[in-house]
Write a structure and sequence with these properties.
CATH topology of the largest domain: Rossmann fold
CATH class of the largest domain: Alpha Beta
Distance between the termini: 73 Å
Bound molecules: zinc ion
Shape: globular
Number of strands: 21
Largest sheet: 9 strands, mixed
Strand content: 25-35%
CATH superfamily of the largest domain: P-loop containing nucleotide triphosphate hydrolases
CATH architecture of the largest domain: 3-Layer(aba) Sandwich
Number of domains: 3
Number of helices: 9
Helix content: 10-25%
Amino acid sequence: MAKAKKAYVCIECGAHSVKWAGQCPDCSAWNTLEATTFSTPVASSRPEISTHRLDELPDDVEQRYATAFGEFDRVLGGGLVPGAVVLLGGDPGVGKSTLLQQVSAGLMKDLPVCYATGEESLRQIGQRSLRLGLDAAAMNLLADTSIENVLEQASRCKAKVLVIDSIQTMTSEHLPSAPGSVAQLRESVGRIVQFAKQQDVSVFVIGHVTKEGAIAGPRVVEHMVDTVLYFESDPASRYTLIRSVKNRFGASGEMGVFAMTQNGFREVSNPSAIFLSRDSVNEPGSVVSVAWEGSRSLLVEIQALVADGNSNYPKRLAHGVDQNRLALLLAVLQRHGDLAVADEDVFVNVVGGLRIAETAVDLPTLLAIASSFRDRACPERLVCFGEIGLAGEIRPVRFGTERIAAAAKQGFTQAIVPVGNVPKRAPEGLNVIGVRRLSEALDAAW
Ligand SMILES: [Zn+2]
């Protein structure tokens, strides 16, 4: 038997460390390092293993199952792959169980599904199914927290799809550690992956994103599964986004949009303009941009508020865009846009709880800040995008033509874009202005 190794693992980000520290060296969270022993489990009986010739594989290697939602298929990379392990993470109460119960009901039309819960009673699942109006009479239900029991029952009912709600409630009988610990999470996911691959069963694993360090978060096991999806939403917004942050069977970064209704989730299959609030667009401090999410465009509204700072340390708060990027952009605005914002408090928000990681929103962010600072609204029906360099230059972004077409389709009449993104022929009704420098863009907007 292999000797047990001892290490410390961060329950937030999963980083390893040989010695204990008060703060995680990787994600800087406090008090999140947990002592974990890694031991190789003693296999009681080794299954028969043999190699296979590539040309002897079954014809259905490209097979995928369609779920109840086109938007969910999209984030999975075009449907559920047999034998895939999909981790679905999100804050508690965001609707993970509801969504997977709806997805299960959709898959059940063709496949046997087993739904295992360690969170709720069977009665609660039944009540939810009734409330959602699901046709899922034949679903195999199981309330258990032993991962060995769950996998054995799933195998016994010949399930092709297994849902585990949630990974933090599951424990392996082979480990003495407490439920929700790093060791238990890894052991359970390890067993799930082995089961999924050997029996060709697709498994959805629900993981709660935890704010305090009592139980380990889903990031600890991200590297073990095939696909990682996260819920991303603003509690105040009507819409819920699901984004793939890792996908062995498709592009990561793909996003699905859902609306929460009384009867559960409803997909929003054409979300290009749902995040525009018609009222605030013509106010000072508001600018519309075209973001690129996954494989499609999305019109977003970026709002900024510049307020007189009272302290020596002006506040910089960013919601939906990167805080460090905002600090960098403000320095560029001060130097190359000739706007004295260094001592002002600056707040930036992306409407609808969206998080935008791409640099194409640099220029609209600065236009929104300049608009609030000058207390002058941008022209009506104006859209803009572009990356900003440290020298105040505006750089082209990918999918420029597609973004411009999307803006024209939504009825925008003016676009300020990097020179490199100006199309040879602008769409009808849209005046495209190419800019090289930040100062040119500020002049073009006013
Ligand atoms: Zn960490």
